[in-house]
Amino acid sequence: MIETRRPGLAHACAAVLRRDLTLAWRLRGDMVLPVLYALIVTSLFPFALGPENALLRRIAGGVVLVTILLAMLLAMDAMFRSDIEDGSLEQLMLAPQPLAVMLGMKILAHWLATALPLIVVAPLLAGMLHLPATVIPVLLAALLLATPLLSLLGGILVALTAGTRRSGMLLALMLLPLCVPVVIFAAGALAAAQEGLPWIAPIAWLGAALVLAVVLAPLACAAALRIALDS
Amino acid sequence: MNTVASAPSLDTPAQRGAPLLEARALAFYRQDEAVFGPLDFSLTASELMLIEGDNGSGKTTLMRILTGLLRPEEGELFWRGERLTWDRCSGEVVFLGHQLGLKAELSARENLAFTIGLHGHRNQSGIEQALTQVGLSGLEDEPVRKLSAGQKKRVALARLLLVPAILWLLDEPYANLDRAGIELVDVLLEAHIAHGGSALVTSHGAVQFHGGEPQRIHLHD
User: Fold this and answer.
1) Is B164 close to A5, i.e. CB distance below 8 A?
2) Residue of A nearest to B111 (CA)
3) pLDDT value of position B205
4) Which of A4, A29, B22, B212 is the most exposed place for a label (fewest CB within 10 A)?
């Protein structure tokens, strides 16, 4: 007679989140790298374009957005890699829990560990390029919607390229075209805010896209990873 | 965060009659070359099945198909009389493969806590107790990275003690283990079979099983 206690879904979600965040904290050196990358790239622009305030102010929003996007790409590759290598993913698939939800939790943990530090330093990056302080709340709103969207899109592509070697470069080539609409809407909101125009519409579009991605991306991830391991 | 719900016991009398796992004409090919099969077998509760074969004879491939991670090219698998599909693995199975599924940066205790969080655990079983049983007391809080290959295997074996699975799928459970470790696997298997569980074990023939005559499947090249 095997007496059992099965964990509920919330319990399992908490377990995945707790483990991945603990792992991120143990490997926190890796967490710092994208932040340093973003700081260095942003500081290159005044050197390349000259320290003219008006010019920097005009490009600041776009530069910060693209820099953060590229910095996220650096860490994207690692989203499921260690889990595939050490067999954790197999164990996750065999657990009596919906795989898509568990992967959603992994993506959330990855976003918290990689994108959130970048959002925290975003005002600093914006300040380095003289972005007006009044625009910074819009920048943060755009980033809070755009970065999870990128994590979710990235998650699908990481899952699709999981079986291949040198997936990092392939991932970048596949993800960057998908970033175009995200960048357009986020930059659109920033440009509108800088000119004192209403900026809520592009932000709402980002929000709508994020809702769609939250629902669909984990399902796509689960399907793609099953295919990747079925070989 | 106390959402743990009590599930019904795994071996109710009604389910005891049907075979747990049944394979019908199961076969797998790689580039049109047969890896194994067609195989027919069935496994009931309280039964041990040994899968024997040389390196490269398809033992691990068969194991991965039985977990549901890999699709068989031909044939069908049934779990308690219901078809086991590729995207619906049974929650009543625990799998121990070549990759142990342990996080090197986490301690044995943290790794097992994660397992319990996903799979649940048997009543009256605790992480401390399981780790003591596999001979790792005192090493609970060491990062798994610092353990030896055999000790890592023992952490994975502790998972078998905790997870409420009726079927154990063990792929080469003896690899990397010392003499005491090999005996430990045998003892765990005997206790599991004696309590109504079943197990499929791949091996080169090192199993010393005293709880009855196991079924054997031999895979050829």
Assistant:
1) yes
2) A19
3) 62
4) A29
What are the start-end ranges of the E strands in A11-163? none
Distances (CA, A) of B154 to A103, B42, B150: 27, 29, 6
Residue B106 has pLDDT above 90, yes or no: yes
CA proximity to B120, closest of B10, B201, B16, B14: B10
Which of B67, B73, B93, B103 is most worth mutating to test chain A (most A CB atoms within 10 A of its CB)? B103
Instruction: Please tell me which of the candidates A4, A18, A231 has its beta carbon nearest to residue B122.
Output: A4
Binary contact (A16, B117; C-beta < 8 A): yes
pLDDT tens column, B144-176: 999 999 999 999 999 998 888 888 999 988 888
- Using alpha carbons, select from B20, B16, B21, B15 the residue that is nearest to residue B75: B21
Domain ranges of chain A: 9-229
Residue A206 CA neighbour count, 13 Å, CB half: 29
Strand, coil or helix: A203: helix
* Cα angle for residues B86, A2, B99 (degrees, 5° grid): 45
Check residue B219 and give its pLDDT.
80
B117 close contact with A: CB closer than 8 A: yes
What is the spatial distance between Cα A16 and Cα A78, in angstroms, rounded to a whole number? 16
Q: Which chain B residue has its CA at the smallest distance from A89's CA? A: B101
**Residue B205: partners with Cβ closer than 8 Å, 6 or more residues away:** B52
Pick from B80, B103, B68: nearest CA to B10: B80
Mutate to test the interface with B, among A23, A94, A97, A221 (most CBs of B within 10 A): A94
Residue B116 pLDDT greater than 70, yes or no: yes
Under DSSP, is residue B219 helix (H, G, I), strand (E, B) or coil?
A: strand
